[in-house]
Structure formats: C-alpha cells, structure tokens
Design brief:
43% of the residues lie in helices and 14% in strands. With 259 residues, it is an alpha/beta fold.
C-alpha cells in the first residue's frame, strides 16, 4: 500500500527489535529513508538496516541512550544532517530499568530510588528531550509527524509496574499539550498504545499455550502482532492522515471480557 512516504526522512528510536524493527522495515517497504537508534546492540541495528535496504528503503544507524540527553541530541542532529531534514519521528525506545522489567518488586514500599528514578527519567524525560530536539526539524517539514509509543499498562496497570506505567502515562499528557504547540506548524502528534504484543505469533516471555488462552479474554479474540502496531504507526505518520491529532490509538486486542 502506497502511503505517500517515499523518500520521507524518518527516525525510529529503539529500532533494533520488536515493534521498532517491524515499523522501521515497514517504512523501508514504503521507500522511506529510515534512521534507527540503538543503545547497546549495534549488530542487531545493523541487521535491521540491511532489512530496511532489502525492503526498498535507505537506512542509517545511530546510537542513543534515553538516560543520556546528550546522546539524544546527538542522534537527532546526526539524523537531520544525514537526511537533510526530518519528516517523521517514532518515539519507540524503552528502558526497563536496572532491575529488569521481569524482576520488578510488587510492593511500592520495596521500590528503590535507583530503579524508580532511571525508569522515569528514561521513559518520560528521555522522550521529552527527544521531542524537544526533533521539534525544529519537524516544524520545517511539509508533513511533520510525531508518534509516541505508550503501553496499555498505563491504563490497566500491573503489580510492580508503577514506575514504567507512570512514565508512559506521562506521555499521554505530553501528547495532549504537544498537539497545540506543534500543531500550530502543521505537525500531527499522536500516541499509539500497544497491549501484549507478539512477534510472528510468539511472545518473548509468555509460552504459546498461555498466549492462546490470554487471547480469548480480549474482545478481538486475538493479541496484536508487531505488524499490527507498525501498521497503525505508519498510517498515522503518513500524508494520508491529515486530521488525526492528539489521539490515543489503542492496538490491544480490544477490551477485556468479563470473567
């Protein structure tokens, strides 16, 4: 499907795996110029760059750490310089914190500052810095588009996920205000909220039998794949979208069914 993204200058943060990888390749299939960031997995990012090129796009790989504002500024500057501008930013990079998402304490009183603070700073402040750095180039674009990636944990919650959920919920408020600021210069700003997301039908942690059972508890009777999330992102950032502004687009499999 031609979304009008050919030769668009795109930046996808956290593009070496998962939703970021699938989205970046999707832009490649549209013939876009796609920069992807990575934190520690340069080899994985370079492999995705090859997939982007094979798909028909042009790729560029740049390092970035959500916890280090100077690396965010450097990544944006390098991308703008490399492409000669910037039309689309997808804020997908994530930081689970030093403890790891799967090692989170379940009681708020057990949450140490050395975990809470980096998670909040990376996932909320880090994306604030990203938008701040990218805003001038997006304003100059003929069809500037910005999508921030949240999580359904910001709404449904999960024991122990309070720092991550709170940080992602903060992005909702950020988008609500950004639509007024960047909107003055024709930039569309939206948020995509994935739920439990599979990649090629598999989950990185949840076994397949459990995935199949969980799917039956949602109204779509199906959990989204990274391709479902990527399709929503590509549409929202394409010239085909002209009046969707400040919205939360949920790609979650629908509502939880009553028990």
């Amino acid at each position: 499907m031609d979304l009008g993204l050919r030769d668009a200058a795109v930046l996808v943060t956290g593009g070496s795996s998962g939703i970021g990888r699938t989205t970046a390749i999707g832009y490649g299939q549209e013939g876009a110029r796609v920069a992807i960031t990575y934190n520690s997995r340069k080899d994985a990012a370079e492999a995705v760059a090859e997939e982007i090129e094979t798909a028909g796009g042009t790729a560029y790989v740049v390092p970035m750490d959500l916890n280090e504002p100077e690396t965010i500024a450097a990544a944006v500057d390098a991308t703008v310089t490399h492409w000669g501008g910037l039309d689309v930013v997808v804020a997908n990079a994530v930081d689970w914190g030093n403890a790891g998402f799967d090692e989170r304490p379940e009681k708020i009183e057990d949450g140490r500052a050395e975990w809470w603070v980096p998670v909040m700073r990376a996932n909320l402040e880090g994306n604030y810095h990203l938008v701040q750095q990218a805003a001038p180039a997006l304003r100059r674009s003929a069809h500037g588009r910005l999508v921030l990636i949240s999580t359904d944990l910001a709404e449904r919650g999960l024991a122990g996920a309070w720092p991550y959920g709170a940080a992602k919920a903060g992005l909702h408020g950020l988008v609500a205000s950004l639509q007024h600021d960047l909107g003055k210069d024709g930039v569309l700003v939206n948020l995509v909220m994935p739920g439990i997301t599979l990649e090629n039908g598999e989950h990185r942690v949840i076994p397949r039998p459990a995935v199949e059972q969980i799917a039956t508890t949602f109204s779509a009777r199906k959990l989204p794949d990274t391709a479902d999330v990527a399709d929503a992102i590509l549409f929202l950032t394409s010239p085909r979208t002209t009046a969707i502004q400040g919205e939360i687009v949920r790609v979650t499999g629908g509502h939880l069914l009553p028990a």
